Amino acid sequence: MLIRKSLEKMEDEYLSKYATRSSKSKGRERDEEPCDIRPCFQRDRDRIIHSKAFRRLKDKTQVFLSPEGDHYRTRLTHTLEVSQTARTMAKALKLNEDLVEAIALGHDLGHTPFGHAGERALNRVCPFGFDHAAQSVRTVEVLEKGGQGLNLTYEVRDGIRNHQTAGMPATLEGKIVRFADKIAYIHHDMDDAIRAGILKEGDVPAEIGDVIGYTTGERLDCFIHDIVMNSQNKNDILMSEPVEKAMKAIREFMFERVYKNPEAKSEEGKAEALTETLYNYYMTNFHLLPADLKALYDKGDPKEQIVCDYVGAMTDRYAIAVYEEIFIPKTWRW
After folding, report:
1. Considering just the CA atoms, what is the radius of gyration of the chain in Å?
2. Mind listing the pLDDT tens digit for each residue in 256-307?
3. Between the CA of residue 127 and those of 117, 186, 288, what are the distances in Å?
4. Which sequence spans correspond to the domains of the chain?
5. What CA–CA distances, in Å, run from 278 to 165, 269, 281, 282, 325?
6. What is the mean pLDDT of residues 205-209?
């Protein structure tokens, strides 16, 4: 018997009746021979980990632009924390961990340099707008592997597309990642803000702390336990009303004290201007883009989208280096 078949049989016997089975996947856009060892969602997870877009996450902003410190989060460490939180909940609820992990590891592949500052800039200048969730799907469907894409399963692409608050994932595994993303960034963004001296743990209002805890660890534990306890044996992923209300309140608190904090965000205006300038430059100098991206234009994709593909894929460091190369004069040498 193929190893994959035996693993799929184990899923059928062990997983919750509400879990997504690998053997029941809606499949890929392009048919291909299944792996003899790995179920389809595990194969998707592996493809994402080996992608260029995944490696670039290590040098993309989470909250603080280019922080001087070894322990601040990047977009990559955020992704790993989302994955771990989601897998913890999936294991407890007997859902498909491979599917959860694939969605979590791929959910931010389309994020811009400089975090949401870069996203705002591209959304403002591109006539089609720019949304990192949609761009993450475009990354795995079109941009990776020189324009071939990763050919992921429907369920993974659906989870990536719908990981934001407004999204409605088709699977419970996708819904878990949607919660895990919020839990992770609330947890680690506050931890980073405390490390940076912008917040103290005691700043959390009592009406929030009394419900979900006063330390980052207490809150993380509370969110995970609450979702697991309220979602057991149900065809949905749920949070109790008091904890959900407290989560919304602490997100508002974080927006007020961190995400819109002038001290923490003092460089974001420059980052937006840099991103917008690079977009305009490559719209004028489209011939300078890599061959695989120019090939998309020949296939009918608009220039504006392709320039977003190029600029949006840059890391913080590369975007700054390109800007300096183009716009900053160099010392004359003779």
Report:
1. 21
2. 888 887 776 778 899 999 999 999 999 999 999 999 999 999 999 999 999 9
3. 17, 32, 21
4. 28-185+265-327
5. 30, 14, 5, 6, 11
6. 94
Checking if the pLDDT of 1 tops 80, the result is no
Percent of the chain predicted with pLDDT > 90: 83
> Position of tokens 């103290």?
200
In this structure, is the dihedral angle defined by the CA atoms of residues 260, 266, 268 and 270, taken in order, positive or negative?
Answer: positive
Token code pair at residue 89: 């909940």
Count of other CB atoms within 10 angstroms of residue 326: 13
* Phi, psi torsion values for 153, nearest 5 degrees: -70, 160
Q: What is the pLDDT of residue 149?
A: 97
The CATH number assigned to the domain with range 28-185+265-327 reads 1.10.3210.10
Cα four-point dihedral sign 15, 17, 23, 25: negative
**pLDDT per residue as tens digits for the range 94-114:** 999 999 999 999 999 999 999
Q: Do 62 and 268 touch, CB atoms closer than 8 A?
A: no
Q: For the whole model, what pTM was predicted?
A: 0.95
Do the Cβ atoms of 309 and 292 come closer than 8 Å?
no
Is 141 in contact with 149 (CB distance < 8 Å)? yes
Q: For every residue of the chain, which 3-state class applies, written as one string?
A: CCHHHHHHHHHHHHCCCCCCCHHHCCCECCCCCCCCCCCHHHHHHHHHHCCHHHHHHHHCECCCCCCCCCCCCEHHHHHHHHHHHHHHHHHHCCCCHHHHHHHHHHCCCCCCCCCHHHHHHHHHHCCCCCCHHHHHHHHHHHHHHHHCCCCCEHHHHHHHHCCCCCCCCCCHHHHHHHHHHHHHHHHHHHHHHHHCCCCCHHHCCHHHHHHHCCCHHHHHHHHHHHHHHHHCCCCCCCCCHHHHHHHHHHHHHHHHHHHCCCCCCCCHHHHHHHHHHHHHHHHHCHHHCCHHHHHHHHCCCCHHHHHHHHHHHCCHHHHHHHHHHHHCCCCCCC
Residue range 229-237: mean pLDDT, rounded:
97
